[in-house]
Amino acid sequence: MNHDVRQQQKEELKALGKALFHDLKAHESMTLTYSGEKSLFIRINQTKVCQASHIDQGFVSMDFISHNCHTETTFSITGQLTEDLKRAWEALGNCRNECKTLPEDPYIVLPEEGESSDENHYGKLAPEDKLADILLKPAEPCDLAGLYAAGILMRASMNSKGQFHWFSTENFYFDYSLYTSSQKAIKATYAGSEWDDEKYTASLQEAKRRLEILEQHPRKLTPGKYRVYLAPPAAAEFLNLLTWSGLSEQSLRQGQSPLKKLSEGEMKLSPLFSLDEDFHLGLIPRFNEFGEISPLKISLIKEGELASLLVNKRTAQEYSLTSNAANISETPRSVKVQPGNLKESSILSRLGTGVYISNLHYLNWSDLQNGRATGMTRYGCFWVEEGKIVSPIQDMRFDETLYNVFGDCLEDLGEKAELIPHIFSYGEQSLGGTSVPGMLLNNFTFTL
Amino acid sequence: MSRNLTERLKKLHHQADWVGVREVKETLRNCIARNGKIEQNTMTIDHGLMVEVLVDGQFAYCGTSDTSTQALQTACDRAVLLARHMSSRKIFPFTPDHRPLAVGEYHAPAEILLNKATAGDVAGLLIDATQKMKLSDKIVNCMAHALLSEKESTLVSSTGSHIHQVFSSVASIMSATAQDGSEIQTRSTGVPCHQGGLEFLDRAVIEREAERVGRESLELLTAEQCPTGVYDLVLAPDQLYLQVHESIGHPLELDRILGDERNYAGWSFVQASDFGKLQYGSPLLNVVFDPTLMSEYASYAFDDTGLPATRQYLIKDGILLRGIGGIDSQKRLALPGVACSRASSWNRPPIDRMANINIEPGDTSFNEMISGVERGIYMTTNTSWSIDDYRNKFQFGCEYARLIENGKLTKVLRNPNYRGTTKTFWHNLKKVGDASTFEIWGSPGCGKGEPNQGITVGHAVPACLFGDIEVFGGSL
What we know:
heterodimer; A: alpha+beta; PmbA/TldD fold; 2 domains; 10 helices; 24% helix; B: 2 domains; five-stranded mixed barrel; 24 strands
């Protein structure tokens, strides 16, 4: 069934592209990208169903070039070729009209011939008719809030030079949190492609076990410097901020990179810290909006030094560089941080006296040029004394530079990385994830 | 858009207790120029339907970008089935009374229709603006960006509701980045955003603002670092609007108070029992939910459940009166709210959202406000924001500041930041600017909800003075 849905969508896109490409004039070229999903979302609060929705959507972006003018029209599609061709012809007409009025684009990226690809991942999702019980019964009597999202996500890219890339995957995540009566919480995510009741129950049991510690009275910390352990989800939050613009060549050139001092050799990160774009994780397509296939692995930061930045074709045109097949925003799509030597069993003893931070929240740059960020602790964060958890803490605000977090203050990284799936769903479900170990830091600054 | 959505709904076969269909079509132009050249020109045409059904007390939804009759029936069937599957574990027993009948229209005023400008016209304006910004070789990057939206929404229901709303809006930002050696500073216009037409892309205003941000980016290169300490703080409307958004708007959302957002956006320090009692801030603080203010970014006549939108006090004389919650949250909490169940598009169910959340003007002119400060900082234009999940401990950064010494604005300061806690901050409100300082701001993309939704919000505020605020500058 799912195979048919994907095959049908793929064939429809090919037919759409064939008709459009056939109509192009000699001075015109086109790249079409597609993003579609058939998703089920179940929103839960107080271990009850709050909202439930099916979403069936598809969007085609038509990147159109006429002479040296360039524009793009994105339109929603129905999956029915006749109607979608009608929408596509309207979009093409719009593109042609716009190009007549637009100035030339000096950094235009023309579509090229190249290899095609076809990648499909199949899964086994929990049955919808039993889903409410499957999700909620094992959680009782706990107070649970969260979002279950499941479905088929599809991406494609094709151009008038004959290239065609297709990626589809079927997966789910249940991103949830459990609450004590005093509203302290533990956060967890169970994700995968095949639902397994036992694995879900194990995830819940671990969260419930940690929840018990939160029942104790929380300790109020005073602002100052602390030894901290950032668990993988907390480390991933910091990395997400760092990689938002930090590894982009265009951001650096335009004065918007927090890694400027690193790129100029003025500051260094810890030799323990290495970060790669690594598509071996298999979570996200390797093709980008220009139809390029990314290398399987790009070393971005190696042992504390900037190894390379992400460069897309447009940036490469503007600054006479070579593209490394980065996406349009030059953000890494599949981040992997190299693990260290910190054993799971010795996290608390190595932390000694300090704060175990499970999650961070609402990070933002407080001084971009100096790589300084602020944010909050969230969910299960604990005060640890002499290697033993003593109590939860009241949430604290930090203000700290990435040169300390990934540099001077970094004592060690966990020996095992955890895969933190990307679960954003603004407009559409996101793909990919971050593979990151926990991080042991000293002198981490809390301010409020 | 469908010619007769009500007739299409009537032809649906279903066994639901209530059915609603919301059709949305948005055409969004996004144009960016950089350093005298076009960077990007895109148009997005997003069109789809969302079916909402009520079965056994459970609402469920099915959205589809296929607007055909067959797809509408399929969406209705899937929503009914989903509601049936979930109803045994529903959070609240809703009834058809929770979707009251409503009929009406809304057309956002636009003096000059957006389709009067070609893509080239908009691009040309923005390209020229980036050239106006470049006042010196030290300005290394100039960017101008415009976002033009035309959106049409029709909501019909099996009980006879029919609401048709048409929105036209314009948002823009211009920024100049200046560099001298290792010092880099960016100055921008913020993001002016309004309902309306091309009158909000007026060439004379754009060019004047472009020159200003260019000039002020150069000023920042040689400015002193913002000092660290406790100061009186005057916030310009282009910063204060976000302070209102984060520390008044979000904590007053009833779905946060209910805990619906606990797993993502967060909770609130406000409790249901606080309404009518809590002294939220100084008696000078008056906050309204006002979807009726002409040209504000999130004005409308009905929310996406069909509730008629009216102006309501949320905070009066500093006392918390009413929360920001639509009909579903109002029923679940047994509290009054406002018409604010809004969806980002056809592909998301409505949830409690801010619309226009405004501070009413006071009686102090800007000059009077400054002249009354012996030692303070005046901060303008937000650049950084962060607040905890209970909406209590916050930190904001601005682009540009001036020192206030003995009642006068003096030196320009760079990297200004401040931090505090919500109730203490609003209790420290000492002066509220008069109508001459009142400005309309907002945001094109407030994020919230599971699945996530980014939505327009409006905030109109005067300049305000706060006492005893912890401020600081940038550093490694």
